[in-house]
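Researcher: Go.
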Amino acid sequence: MAQFGKETSARGEFVRQPNRFTGRVTEPEAGRYRLVVSLACPWAHRAVIVRALLGLDEAISLAVVDPIRDERGWRFSLDTDGVDPVLGAQFLSEVYLATDENYEGRVTVPALVDTHTGTVVTNDYPRITLDFSTEWTSFHRPGAPDLYPEGRREEIDALIEPIFHHVNNGVYKCGFASAQSAYDLAYTSLFAELDRLSERLADQRYLMGDDLTEVDIRLFTTLVRFDAVYHGHFKCNRNKLAEMPVLWAYARDIFQTPGVADTVDFDHIKRHYYATHEQINPSRIVPAGPDPSGWWEPHGRS
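Model: Structure:
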């Protein structure tokens, strides 16, 4: 049986649902918008990292849901009385239904919510981080990195595409495959892309050269989860990240970038994956390892 039946093809392939809400904030107001995330989710983690690196903490408030998602979806159970203090909701699904009362898809994070209307502006995770870089510039901290430099966007976008299909979404294609052939194809594509990226990074610090950009953040949120969940839970087990020297050093370099490590919560990551994917892990036992201390080992890439 597939983990997400509505997102599984007749060939047993995982086909991610499209993003339902695709509004954009082109005239930002500090304090108006609330970013709802799970610290376990790699798509949401991108937005948390970019928000931190750009210094948007004061301009955009943050709501963190419980890592354990049940049949009712993402819960605000980490907040007092299980209610988000700004949105007044117990479940993110309430905000989705306030936006579209007929919404029937899977409720996803990240979601950027307009606190004035109580509705979702966007759950379009690829666009959210780009807009943080390009539309929220008046709220960036002094010295904030240019994660999506105008002159290199076409080149960045060209790198983003295969990384999304074969790595970011590729691990899910492995983990949620319900046919051997679908899994085999996803597994082969995943490690072929990781090998290509390793070759690219062998003689340069970041994917675009000397500067950290959007595409590095997108790759990192998959790599940081690789050994903890994807290697075993999603059967992405040709190698651990720690057994791929270039990518392991590269990932530690980004992890140790000021502000990034604070956004990584291995407890949330492991509890979410192992305790909510009952078709893959029916016992819901959360493994004790791996030891995260290795993330602080010198990376030698600066």
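Model: The chain is about 40% helix and 5% strand.
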